[in-house]
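#lab-general

N.A. 3:47 PM
ok so I finally got the sequence cleaned up, no stray characters, all 454 residues accounted for. can someone with queue access submit it? mine expired

B.Y. 3:52 PM
send it over

N.A. 3:53 PM
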Amino acid sequence: MVIKGLKDVVEIKDGSIFIKDRVGLRDMMDSLIYDTVFEADDEKRKARFILIKEIAKACSAIPASIQRLYEEMGRNYPGFTVPAINIRGLTYDVAKVIFRKAMQMNVGALIFEIARSEIGYTKQRPLEYSTVVLASAVKEGFEGPIFIQGDHFQITRKNYLSDPDAETNYIRGLIAEAIDAEFYNIDIDASTIVDLPKETVKEQQSPNYALTADLTSYIRKLEPKGITISVGGEIGEIGGRNSTVEEMRAFLDGFRGSLDNKLAGISKISVQTGTTHGGVVLPDGTLAKVKIDFETLKSLSEVARKEYGLSGAVQHGASTLPEEAFSKFPETGTAEIHLATGFQNIIYDNSSLPSDFESEVYEFLTKECAKEKKEGQTEEQFIYSVRKKGFGPFKKKWWDLSGEIKIPIMAELESRFGLLFEKLKVTNTKDIVKKSVKTFGVKKDITDAVRRLS
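B.Y. 4:20 PM
back already:
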């Protein structure tokens, strides 16, 4: 084994991994995952990812589906809203903070996710993302189910209208890649092809539910034995007009009629109630206050749960809301909320981030994303809209920031995660997760991976 020091803490025997020294393994994880992410050889990097993932499973940090918990929520809503967190940059450091806070607050109901678009501009393919998350769990000593999710596996409307087969096949390929990387939670978003000019709501939702059913069937063919992947659907593109109960019923009835009744359907449904991804940025770069229609959210969740047995409705674009808004999600029976930009803002806006590094990122984006600047946008609005794309091209430089710089950023993030866990009432959810979710470690063959590293 060419990974220095690994044989002292891990034993590989007959294709299985045995942990000899857990403390020693945790001590070397920082360098192990860093060297793996930035390994230049593609084959060796993949082999190292697979090996680390299997090591994590041997440490009881196990990729899992949230399906059974959501089924329980559909039967008897337990009064909490599951946070689904997108990590765009400093992924290993941020995930360590999340696990550390989760352990302090006994949080089990928690999702790590990455969207189709984020996979591209953050330069984190599914295998890398899942492995980095699992490595951070090992480092912090977190044990139990870990829910990793493909967020917004979205049909791009322009591409679909031009060549529906090519666009659908792209999503199929991404789904297959994600499942192989042990993403056992996938959100399909075909709301982009809702046909609003059609006369009836059912006709409008027809392209959406038909394609969602087709992709759900595809997922069921790929899921490992013993695991039912949690699949989400979406009825209203985030940033558009608010969703209605009529639209939800039209989608869910059509979806059920389009899917083989022997297959498990979706576990949740994403809706639009007033938010926009990233928030609405004012000319001076500050965020406008967003008003969520919580009554609509409540009625949608109730219908989803009581009439269709789903866990409830899902709210996107929530991370930039004011603190007082988060406690309303459990009150309205919201099953899950997606959080991303607010954490990105904490990273970029923390005073410890060196101004010269920030300027370097912004200057790069100003040139590379010039075509994305909209007419009438101020410089502040433009930078805010594209700075999410500064994580991928500068990934190594972000990782290489000193502890002196990272510590204040992580402290602010830790405080934010603690607030969210409390407001969303997911503290002390370890037991309900343990009771409802049975982990099933899908053993990957590491023979080839070990050979490539020999």
